Amino acid sequence: MNKAARAKRRKHLPVVLKRSEVARLLSGIDGTHYLMAALL
After folding, report:
1. In which domain, by residue range, is 32 found?
2. CB distance 37 to 26 below 8 Å
3. pTM
4. pLDDT tens-place string over residues 1-40
5. Helix, strand or coil for residue 31?
6. How many structural domains is the chain composed of?
7. Mapping DSSP to helix (H, G, I), strand (E, B) and coil, where does residue 19 land?
């Protein structure tokens, strides 16, 4: 049982957007979808 290989951790960096990028994304959405995205 000790010879089992462990899974490798993937190096994943979180994506962080600038305020201007978020504003640009939100400008293309309307209605309920806009409300849900804006609350995030």
Report:
1. 16-40
2. yes
3. 0.55
4. 578 888 888 888 888 999 999 999 999 999 999 999 999 8
5. helix
6. 1
7. helix
